[in-house]
């Protein structure tokens, strides 16, 4: 008689073990491992012990779903703000990024070819209300003739899931002398016709109150730059240390609030006052763009989330706001921002550096604390150098 063959132990392509794995979507929070076959996660948790063709061990690090930056400027070409996502985002743990208006209807196809299709990073677009995107030197909405409603609708219909929504910034920097009410009327027409949300940058000018602007927004629309301190009488969410009533009312209606740190839009005192009253942003984002290239310390999503830890946000809340929460906003929660089996094998390994360079806001205000720093990234199961 022939002996019964011995079953072979399953072998996966990649196994990553870490001293702590965290997933807000599945509740994982502790030592464990993630097993990857092809571009999919096949198992994650404390008991995962599967033979693998390649094994990585990070006993002193944190393993998360790939980070998601809901507001940055990925653009290989054609945008005055653009950075190459595979050079400046992916190696720093960001596997998915939403572009804040780097392309408009007239250069959408070129953007798709040179940035979305050509990048390993998963890129989604909030299409600029300006048909020229950010291709010109001045404000993208300074010329109202650049708002081509029919072209924008056609581009969104062509882009499908690649175009998440519409980016509209009504600050004087973006729209110059153009009437912000005209801009919003046209933006909302496109949004309604295409059933897309807005990624909205507020006015920051005394001709429009924050309450008036919030009244334009609909459930699912995202207000970014939410912790700026340009003028507490104008657009700051916090006035005299108190979160405004109109802001709480907007949240109750389903308006979402995103950080959008950037060069001008994150104040430690404003964020601290908001957090102290229980007002947390839905998503933490960088607004990372060309002026950040080569910055010391490097501005990135891991450092931005570390600033929220420094002012009292819990680790679970902060990590959720760069993984599961933005995945929900993008409508991709079954695919990214999770370690659930069957989801895409996008992974980020971070290590805590207690002696990192100081954490500062855009005004140079400093808070004590270390910083999470990127160690390793996997995008769709492929390790990124």
Key structural traits:
385 residues, alpha/beta, TIM Barrel, seven-stranded mixed beta sheet, seven-stranded parallel beta sheet, 18 strands, globular, disordered N terminus
Q: What is the CATH topology of the domain at 66-330?
A: TIM Barrel
Sheet with the most strands? 7 strands, mixed
Question: Which geometry do the CA atoms define?
Answer: globular
Order of helices and strands: EEEEEHEHEHEHHEHEEEHEHHHHEEEEE
Sum this structure up briefly:
The protein is an alpha/beta fold and 385 residues long.
Note the topology.
Layout: E1 11-23, E2 28-37, E3 40-45, E4 51-65, E5 67-72, H1 85-88, E6 94-100, H2 108-116, E7 122-128, H3 149-159, E8 163-169, H4 172-175, H5 180-194, E9 198-201, H6 210-216, E10 222-223, E11 238-239, E12 242-243, H7 245-253, E13 256-257, H8 268-276, H9 301-310, H10 315-320, H11 324-330, E14 347-353, E15 359-360, E16 366-367, E17 371-379, E18 382-384
Parallel strand pairs: 1-4, 5-6, 6-7, 7-8, 8-9, 9-10, 10-13
Antiparallel strand pairs: 1-2, 2-3, 4-14, 11-12, 14-17, 15-16, 17-18
